[in-house]
């Protein structure tokens, strides 16, 4: 802004104050770039931490399930297959163990007669498909992992993952009461 | 009156000390010629001061303009350096976390597959063992190696010798292979079937 009350020879010596508009724009652009990059970095860190926690929980559940299932099948003498249940009997005196599958949850119940003595759950990610299979004296638990990126044009039941895990346990002295698949 | 005028002008100007002192040295009694000489000198001095001041102002402005032109470059360089440092710190860290997660998953699933193979070996024998399809679908560059474990003569093992199952993961060139092993003791499996095989590594 020119100060017209000054004599002409002094107008050129007036010190400019403030910042030009495109400097403001450049400051704004650089600061927004810095903040955006910082946000992306924090988001990447939190996402990696979240994925790490999910994988750790999944592996921990898998190991716990495997250990308990192998321990139960090692003491089993007879196997009863029902719709979604597998009942492992180890003798007349000891309570039997019932493994049941419901969606993405595997439940283990110690049953004495009709009364459940204790129970524990193994929760997997939503969308995980679980089923028990009995063949050749092998009790196999198939775990089909939930897909990471489900297709948008498919329903939740149509999601198919190619990655699976199988837990194979051998019950040498077992006699299946009902052969077939329990899904 | 003239003396008063000259005194006033002298007091207004800041750097006219020598003319004022000359004026006072001669007792304040100046004639017209002397007064005009002194006054002309003062005017010249004032012009000189103005020119010096204007030069200083123009020098200041040019310095400010130079610094303003350079400040944007400095800011951009600082921002670039900051972004580079942040990226250089974060990208390897996130990549390392990802690799660690993959390694943990591989170790867990390998242990699971070794336990499955041990169960199958206890039922069918170690000759027919091969990696499961679900495992080879995940890790295609893995191989299974079945070896007999040599037992010391001081501790003879009755029955078939123990078997070591090793899953070898071929890594890219320059890195050592990743091996996970499990030793199956058939004698122990026969006597007590509820004892899980013990992991050797």
Topology:
The complex is a heterodimer of chains A (183) and B (201).
Chain A: H1 8-11, H2 21-74, E1 78-81, E2 85-89, E3 96-102, E4 105-112, E5 115-123, E6 129-135, E7 138-144, E8 164-170, E9 175-176, E10 180-182
Parallel strand pairs in A: 1-9
Antiparallel strand pairs in A: 1-2, 2-3, 3-4, 4-5, 6-7, 6-10, 7-8
Chain B: H1 2-12, H2 17-25, H3 32-124, H4 133-138, E1 142-148, E2 163-169, E3 178-184, H5 186-191
Antiparallel strand pairs in B: 1-2, 2-3
Write the H/E string of chain A, N to C: HHEEEEEEEEEE
Q: Determine the number of helices of chain B (DSSP H or I, runs of at least 4 residues).
A: 5
Shape of chain A: rod-shaped
Largest sheet of chain B, in brief, is: 3 strands, antiparallel
Q: Indicate the percent of residues in helices of chain B.
A: 55-70%
Question: How helical, in percent, are the residues of chain A?
Answer: 25-40%
Strand order of the largest sheet of chain B: 1-2-3
- Overall shape of chain B: it is rod-shaped
Derived from helix and strand composition plus strand pairing, the structural class of chain A reads: alpha+beta
Poorly predicted regions of chain B? 4-8, 190-201
Poorly predicted regions of chain A are: 179-183
Largest interface: A-B, 39 and 41 residues
Give me the count of strands of chain B: 3
In short:
Chain A is built from two helices and ten strands, in the order ααββββββββββ. With 183 residues, chain A is α+β, with helices and mostly antiparallel strands.
List its traits.
heterodimer, A: 183 residues, alpha+beta, 6-stranded mixed sheet, 4-stranded antiparallel sheet, 10 strands, 32% strand, rod-shaped, B: 201 residues, mainly alpha, 3-stranded antiparallel sheet, 3 strands, 10% strand, disordered C terminus
Task: Note down, in words, how this protein is organized.
The complex is a heterodimer of chains A (183) and B (201). By secondary structure, chain A is α+β, with helices and mostly antiparallel strands. Chain A has one domain. Chain A has helices at residues 8-11, 21-74; strands at residues 78-81, 85-89, 96-102, 105-112, 115-123, 129-135, 138-144, 164-170, 175-176, 180-182. The longest helix of chain A has 54 residues, at 21-74. The model of chain A is unreliable at 179-183 (pLDDT under 50). With 201 residues, chain B is mainly alpha-helical. Chain B is built from 5 helices and 3 strands, in the order H-H-H-H-E-E-E-H. In chain B, strands 1-2-3 form a 3-stranded antiparallel β-sheet. In chain B, a hairpin with an 8-residue loop joins strand 2 (163-169) and strand 3 (178-184). Chain B is rod-shaped and about 140 Å long. Classes of the chains: A alpha+beta (183), B mainly alpha (201). The A-B interface holds A 13, 15, 23, 26-27, 30, 33-34, 37-38, 41, 44-45, 48-49, 51-52, 55-56, 59, 62-63, 66, 70-71, 74-75, 137-138, 162-170, 172 and B 54, 57-58, 60-61, 64, 72, 75-76, 79, 82-83, 86-87, 90, 93-94, 97-98, 100-101, 104-105, 108-109, 111-112, 115-116, 119-120, 122-123, 132, 134, 137-138, 193-196.
